[in-house]
């Protein structure tokens, strides 16, 4: 998100100056992918001069005219008094400018929700997306469960997606005592969720910004599903839930909460994490946390929430509303210039629609009617198919851009030929596949020594398959904490991998991470021979 300092020239600007400011706003909104924060009363050099009340009102009026000109809305985030050499009180105002996207190209952030079993992940998401507090016994999470055994046990075993929308309203209340735009307190009512019996389609239509929560299982039994969700669905950030204590939510004393927060802060500051914890206790904290989180990967906001009383839930909503996209428009534009590549994460059969795949567009642009190839199959081939229709967050969409998640309808294409881990790509890409690849890894934990012949489950993006360690370069074995370049061979079928892709492997308590450094490309014929 672009943050700009605006000085006193917003007060009654000339027509030439006004057009120049509008052009600047267009550019800043483009760079921020539809969002920008303006700091009114701060000079370009960062000097906090502030504005008197009449000057601030005139500046906000001008900013509103600018936003109208570019099809955007404004929301006042916060106001602060400054100590400046003046007899009159002076203020600085931060304003969020958000453009209303066209053709359903709303800003979309994906948040992975993690936590130990029974920490309250599904309950929190139920409260946020359904607009109703929990009763202390898990009522809020019932609408999120996908299987009978989840309802019976109260534990998530699969990956589910929930959406929370924020609209772009910044209504003008007039010049008589009320500020231009909405205050942060008013803006909280602009959350768009399933309350008032809204459908997913209505939420998408009413929202300028969408938060897609990826609800991941907390039980160790479903660890493979959780890891797949983290590596495959490309979340922008993660929300980690830590139970205030091991008992029932809201039967926790304030001292216990404070002790848990102190423990969490100590863990985050340890050498292995190198994080900067930031406890959010006010709206001002939430605004600052969102801005600093986007600027530094080390900043880690901490919220003390209750899904029963609703404590601090509004602060989390403020944070999510202001949280900017973590990639800028230039990076997305570069990805869109590349050939089409879509990761296949889910496969469905929908009555009267046919075969449907869900996943993320890694690069390029995908449109209705596009001819793509999908693979690799077990024998290393890629098959031709046609994209019949596209949906984003359950609403029809004609164009899919790099970085966006969606479901694609493939008509009568045989579902039996598809599997998770495949890719759909442009035929011009001439995709390469491999059974053998090398990766530079760090062994996070292993009970004994990690040697040649050891079998692990490898996760690379949406790929998940058992592989055997064929060689450890320059070493005979690895111990916990050691690094090496390792050669792996897939045991079942070839996969589509790219150099530089992040990798995670596990087997029992053994865990390691790294990145792909080399792939030994093979043809379909060689794939059949190697797997035979």
From TrEMBL:
InterPro entries: EF-Tu_GTPase, GTPBP1-like, P-loop_NTPase, T_Tr_GTP-bd_dom, Transl_B-barrel_sf, Transl_elong_EF1A/Init_IF2_C
Domain Tr-type G: 106-329
Protein name (Swiss-Prot/TrEMBL): GTP-binding protein 2
Annotated Pfam families: GTP_EFTU
Keyword Nucleotide-binding: yes
Key word Nucleotide-binding present: yes
Gene3D superfamilies linked: P-loop containing nucleotide triphosphate hydrolases, Translation factors
Entry keywords, A to Z: GTP-binding, Nucleotide-binding
Organism: Apodemus speciosus (Large Japanese field mouse)
PANTHER family reported in the protein's UniProt record: ELONGATION FACTOR TU-RELATED, GTP-BINDING PROTEIN 2
Family: Belongs to the TRAFAC class translation factor GTPase superfamily. Classic translation factor GTPase family. EF-Tu/EF-1A subfamily.
Transmembrane parts of this sequence: none
């Amino acid at each position: 998100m672009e943050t700009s300092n605006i000085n006193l020239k917003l007060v009654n600007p000339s027509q030439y100056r006004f057009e120049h400011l509008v052009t600047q706003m267009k550019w800043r909104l483009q760079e921020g992918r539809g969002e920008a924060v303006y700091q009114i009363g701060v000079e370009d050099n960062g000097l906090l001069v502030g504005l008197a009340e009449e000057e601030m009102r005139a500046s906000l009026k001008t900013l509103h005219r600018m936003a109208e000109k570019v099809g955007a809305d404004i929301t006042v985030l916060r106001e602060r008094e400054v100590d400046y050499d003046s007899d009159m009180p002076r203020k600085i105002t931060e304003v969020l400018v958000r453009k209303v996207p066209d053709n359903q190209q709303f800003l979309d952030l994906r948040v992975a929700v993690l936590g130990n079993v029974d920490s309250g992940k599904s309950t929190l998401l139920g409260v946020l997306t359904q607009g109703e507090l929990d009763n202390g016994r898990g009522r809020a999470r019932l609408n999120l469960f996908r299987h009978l055994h989840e309802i019976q046990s109260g534990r998530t075993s699969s990956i589910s997606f929930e959406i929370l929308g924020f609209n772009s309203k910044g209504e003008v209340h007039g010049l008589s005592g009320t500020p231009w735009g909405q205050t942060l307190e008013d803006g909280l009512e602009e959350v768009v969720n399933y309350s008032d019996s809204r459908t997913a389609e209505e939420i998408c239509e009413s929202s300028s910004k969408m938060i897609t929560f990826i609800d991941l299982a907390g039980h160790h039994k479903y660890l493979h599903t959780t890891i797949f969700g983290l590596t495959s669905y490309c979340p922008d950030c993660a929300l980690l839930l830590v139970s205030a204590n091991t008992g029932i939510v809201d039967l926790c004393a304030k001292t216990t909460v404070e002790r848990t927060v102190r423990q969490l802060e100590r863990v985050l500051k340890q050498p292995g994490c190198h994080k900067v914890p930031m406890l959010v206790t006010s709206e001002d904290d939430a605004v600052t946390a969102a801005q600093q989180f986007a600027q530094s990967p080390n900043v880690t906001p901490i919220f003390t929430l209750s899904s029963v009383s609703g404590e601090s839930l509004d602060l989390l909503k403020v944070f999510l509303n202001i949280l900017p996209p973590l990639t800028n428009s230039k990076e997305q534009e570069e990805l869109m210039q590349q050939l089409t590549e879509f990761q296949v994460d889910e496969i469905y059969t929908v009555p009267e629609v046919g075969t449907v795949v869900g996943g993320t567009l890694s690069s390029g642009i995908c449109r209705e009617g596009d001819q793509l190839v999908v693979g690799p199959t077990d024998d290393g081939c890629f098959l031709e198919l046609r994209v019949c229709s596209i949906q984003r967050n359950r609403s029809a969409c004609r164009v899919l851009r790099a970085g966006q998640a969606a479901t694609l309808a493939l008509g009568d294409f045989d579902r039996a030929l598809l599997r998770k881990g495949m890719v759909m790509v442009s035929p011009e890409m001439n995709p390469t596949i491999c059974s053998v690849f090398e990766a530079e890894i760090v062994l996070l934990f292993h009970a004994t020594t990690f040697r040649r012949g050891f079998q692990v489950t490898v996760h690379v993006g949406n790929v998940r398959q058992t592989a055997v360690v064929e060689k450890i370069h320059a070493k005979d074995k690895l111990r916990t904490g050691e690094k090496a370049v390792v050669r792996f061979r897939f045991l079942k079928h070839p996969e589509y991998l790219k150099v530089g892709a992040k990798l995670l492997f596990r087997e029992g308590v053994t865990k390691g991470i790294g990145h792909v450094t080399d792939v030994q490309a093979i043809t379909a014929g060689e794939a059949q021979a190697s797997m035979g």
